[in-house]
Amino acid sequence: MTLLLHEWKRGLKTLLIWTVAISAFMMICVFLFPEMKGMMGDVGDIFSGMGAFTKAFGMDRLDFGSFRGYYGIECGNVLGIGGALFAALLGIGMLAKEEGNHTAEFLFAHPLSRTRAVAEKGLAVLLQILVCNAVVFLLSAVSILAIGEPVFWKELILLHTAFLLLQIQLAGICFGISALLHRNNAGIGLGLALAFYFLNLIANISDSASFLKYLTPFAYTEASDILHDGSLQFGYIAPGMCFLLAGILLAFIAYRRKDLR
Amino acid sequence: MAIIVNCDAKGKQRMQAIEINKLTKNYGRVRGIADLSLQVEEGAFFGFIGPNGAGKSTTIRTLLGFIRPSAGSATVFGRDIVRESEEIRALTGYLPSEAQFHHGMKVRDILKLSAALRGADCHAEASLLCERLQLDVTRKAEDLSFGNRKKVAIVCALQHKPKLLILDEPTSGLDPLMQHAFFEIIRERHAEGATVFLSSHILSEIEHNCTKAAIIREGTVIAHDAVSALAGKKARRVTLRGDVRAALQEELQTLSGVRDFHGFSPSAEKEHASDSIHFLFDGKTAELLQMLAASGVQDVTIAEPDLEEIFMHYYE
Q1: Do B96 and A6 touch (CB under 8 A)?
Q2: Rounded CA gap, A225 and A109, in Å?
Q3: Per-residue pLDDT tens over the stretch B262-287
Q4: CA gap B170, B181 in Å, rounded
Q5: Is the pTM of this model over 0.80?
Q6: How many Å apart are CA B259 and CA B250, to the nearest integer?
Q7: Could A101 and B102 be called an inter-chain contact, meaning their C-beta atoms sit closer than 8 Å?
Q8: Are B187 and B168 in contact, with CB atoms under 8 Å apart?
Q9: Residues 36 to 65 of B: which have CB under 8 A from any A CB?
């Protein structure tokens, strides 16, 4: 577990920054709600009458005036995009950075197998995502209590679980790509995260593009579905977990055979 | 983390520390090494000589499993470089030509990480080495000069007392005093039984330390022998002084076995009539002497060339 510990120490500062940033935005969103509550009647009407835009963000099926609906959309976007970017950056750099920083020779001059390196680095990614999400969840729940809204525990946990899965899936795919790269290429990670996000928006707008839902992990983080059904969207999670598995497999296979630079 | 520190001696016979058999590595269409074969006996102080880009580092990186061979095979202490790479690296200390470390880490933490990755406690040996190399362990990796990074790499390569030391251009970046201290340590390790594989283009290093050496050129070994034999066997440096006529010069240049001829041009003959001429010779000595006896040469020196000359020669 030497490498896992090493990665944890190296990643601590970045983890702290992302966790604080996402938590802060989540809390700001929650604290804004009491003020916006009064205006929500009108705003809700406006938001639900914007055609494609309304559909894209699932606002046709969510009540923006209720705290749940508000939380699902506002906080969903903060945690969705913020968490996805964090996870993508973490995954895309984890294996490639050693060659990018010319530290691969140092690392692999030791009796460390490639398989073990991938496993421990993969666990480091998972650990950081878990810690970030645990803190964000706790702080979000605390701020909901603080503004005196009733906590909808079941849906809140489901919602955050879906975002956790999204981040793990995205990080796993980026981790696989990372095994093919010879230097840290953040652009690929960020691009992939944003591409998935927009794929979901497109799938929401156009019925003929709804098959895209099976490609993007954002499909199963749709707050309108989770709050409406009161359960996770396993129909979209299943293909997502297949992509995750493919990413992890790619990481092991490619990194084991890779020529280090 | 499981590592194997003891190498089980197979019988009593001297084992090959490194055995390379027709090893080939291509980077796409670019040649790395081609059909390279080499044996290094256990306990040897072995030199690996070649210019930049000849394939020295490619050979080493393949042996350590950083890159996969395109064809051929190799073993280190009888272990296959592809299938048993971790065992090989457990027995080996590797000093890269350009060492880089993780930024933000102090030297002390780098040395600790290196020991932890080997599952060993090398505390005592590390502080001994740091003292001899005058390495400040409180410095951060990104603040280290090239020479100090080298020192950190040296401690990482030596602190676990490996059976095989692979040194890739070890003295670059070290001042002469440190080079001296470094080779002192390496010679001690060699005396204690470690096999040393020294890759370098600095010939004096090879000449002063190694008993055997291989010369690599364009990805393949072109000579492999005892250092004394490499330096002596092939050719002699012949120097002539006195009234050397142009006719003799022409005659000499047609003699088989004469190379690297440094004479004077006929136009400058008058001014430099008494200058010396010299050349490398590995032909028949009797033929040369016959030719010289018939000329007006006053002084003849026939000497073993140093490794530098031989080396240049292999690359002509």
Answers
A1: no
A2: 50
A3: 776 555 545 544 467 888 888 888 88
A4: 12
A5: yes
A6: 13
A7: yes
A8: no
A9: 61, 64-65
